[in-house]
Amino acid sequence: MSIPALRWLDPPAGPAIELLDQTRLPAREEIVTCADVPALIEAIRRLAVRGAPLLGIAGAYGVALAALRGDDVRAAAADLAAARPTAVNLSWGVSRALAAWAAAGGNCAGGAGGGGPAALAEAADIAARDAAASAAMAGHGLALVPPGARILTHCNTGALVSGGEGTAFAIILAAHRAGRLAQLWVDETRPLLQGARLTAYEARRAGLPHAVLADGAAASLMAAGAVDLVLTGADRIAADGSVANKVGTYSLAVLARHHGVPFVVAAPVSTVDLDAPDGAAIPVEQRPATEVITLGGQPIAPDGTDAYNPAFDVTPPSLVTAIVTERGVIQPVTAGNVRVLGGATLLAAPPDAVSDVER
Ligand code: MRU
């Protein structure tokens, strides 16, 4: 990607965070600069910066920004963590940077002590590890892609959401490079069209054979035998293997089961939340009705029409064929296997050490 999704700016231009405004894509590649945490929170809420892994990186840089500005770091961290509720990576990234700040002697009053540089170093480390996780997921996930694969994906999971090449999209890119990708089917992903606007943008730039479809067309596409694999990302994975992802993912999982198509999820372990025992414990963000009743600023329903607009849905583990992480593949998706690969005790373990649990 020529313009990175997120870039830290040191003084004199900063401290600040530069974002590629994802609400403007694909029409315009515009940069938005966040010079303080309220501006970053506004960018997160309106999805200028979005996607689970990138939200973790953005949250960590936000803590560093607050510290280096001399703001109230704990208050800023609390506000950042609450900006969007479903992607656990956001609160994870914020708490990692906050812990680094505190360990370096930061205090509630802020100031120019060692806390700010320590939080900044932690944010950079999270970004670098996420890039490494992308590459590792691509390697592990490629084994699940058959030759000549026609892959259906939902929402957006590429470099726009990651320090590297993404999650599910990193696997798709690896399949393309290995000559295994015959076709990428891109769900448009109503209501905010992350598939049509962002995944098609990334697929086009990467030269992938691809086509966009209305979300409702996935059923007939599968019935026609034109899908070999459904591959998506995740915003939070509960301890039992329930997967929260962009609304519409659950429908795909049901369809995939009905048509005998594997349904595979890719996510870094920073997306695994062992404190959420099951899908019911995952908070699902509800967004404004305007996102559903307007399209490109134009009304598509009578003014004032109410709308049901959950940003995510939860797919039960029984419908998930496998979860690809940087540490290996969770298959079958059981609570025991999620704990082995997603557990904090394995943070220091090399990926290959845990790649073959309970097959
Ligand atoms: O509301 P968004 O656009 O932030 O939702 C993003 C998704 O649901 C992605 O599919 C998910 O975060 C995986 S990102 C690798």
Q: Would you mind describing this structure in some detail?
A:
The chain is α/β, with parallel strands linked by helices and 359 residues long. The protein is 37% helix and 17% strand. It is built from 11 helices and 16 strands. The protein has a 7-stranded mixed sheet, with helices on both faces. It has a 4-stranded mixed sheet with strand order 11-8-9-14, covered by helices on one side. The chain has a 3-stranded antiparallel sheet with strand order 1-2-3. Helix 7 links the parallel strand 5 and strand 6. Helix 2 packs antiparallel against helix 3, helix 3 runs antiparallel to helix 4 and helix 5 crosses helix 6. The C terminus is likely disordered. The site of 5-S-methyl-1-O-phosphono-5-thio-D-ribulose has 18 residues, from helix 2 and strand 9.
